[in-house]
């Protein structure tokens, strides 16, 4: 019997990092498994790649992971919050409603002293999702290195996840040459150079100056 905090990665989706829901096998050639719903966003990606092995796959060619699902329905575990025993296939829905689960969000605390006010609802401008393959949790440097290595020849017009997260960003504006844009405009961490208490024009100008200084 496994504790839910110690579940094998075999039962975890690499995209949402949650317990697999309706697990399916993709056509990457390595039998990697994801939640069926997590693959829906890949349907619009021009060059979808497996988040684990980086091999191309067709998001419309998926196969139900029947053996794994049977295993999840037969293997028992224990909720780490209420200690209730159940099969793994029911754990995800249980955790969403467990009365003893701690769902509080840790209060933001800066590493050092800062002159900037801390917003009540701080948006995530630290990690981003690759617009080509939907690989998540990449910082600016990681996103740039990933795109240069995995998508150097991709010419699809995509929305820049860094720009769209900024106060001045437009979530509908696509970059015709994203890799060039990424290498030219995003060579620094925005939190270091940009004061989010300024107005949009001042922040944009500060970002451009910092980008040029890093070239």
UniProtKB/TrEMBL annotation:
Instruction: State a single Gene Ontology molecular function.
Output: zinc ion binding
RING-type domain residues: 13-54
Which domain of life does the protein's organism represent?
Answer: Eukaryota
TM stretches of this protein: none
Question: Keywords in UniProt for this one?
Answer: Metal-binding, Transferase, Ubl conjugation pathway, Zinc, Zinc-finger
Keyword Heme assigned to the entry: answer is no
Q: Which PROSITE patterns match?
A: ZF_C2HC_RNF (PS51803), ZF_RING_2 (PS50089)
Residue ranges occupied by any C2HC RNF-type domain in the UniProt entry: 79-98
Which pathway does this polypeptide act in?
Protein modification; protein ubiquitination
> What name does the UniProt record give this protein?
Zinc finger protein 313
């Amino acid at each position: 019997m496994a504790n839910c905090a110690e579940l094998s990665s075999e039962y975890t989706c690499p995209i949402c990092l949650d317990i697999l829901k309706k697990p399916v096998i993709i056509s990457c050639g390595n039998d990697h498994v994801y939640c069926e719903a997590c693959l829906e966003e890949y349907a619009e990606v021009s060059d979808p790649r497996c988040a684990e092995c980086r091999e191309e796959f067709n998001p419309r060619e998926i196969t139900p992971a029947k053996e794994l699902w049977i295993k999840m329905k037969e293997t028992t575990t224990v909720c780490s919050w209420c200690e209730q025993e159940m099969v793994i296939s029911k754990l995800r829905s249980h955790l969403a409603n467990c009365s003893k689960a701690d769902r509080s969000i840790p209060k933001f605390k800066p590493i050092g002293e800062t002159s900037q006010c801390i917003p009540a609802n701080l948006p995530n401008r630290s990690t981003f999702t690759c617009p080509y393959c939907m690989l998540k949790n990449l910082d600016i440097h990681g996103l740039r290195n990933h795109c240069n290595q995995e998508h150097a020849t991709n010419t699809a017009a995509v929305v820049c996840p860094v720009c769209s997260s900024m106060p001045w960003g437009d979530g509908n504006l696509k970059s015709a040459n994203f890799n060039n844009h990424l290498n030219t405009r995003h060579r620094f961490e925005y939190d270091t150079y940009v004061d989010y208490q300024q107005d949009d024009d001042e922040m944009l100008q500060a970002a451009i100056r910092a980008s040029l200084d890093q070239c």
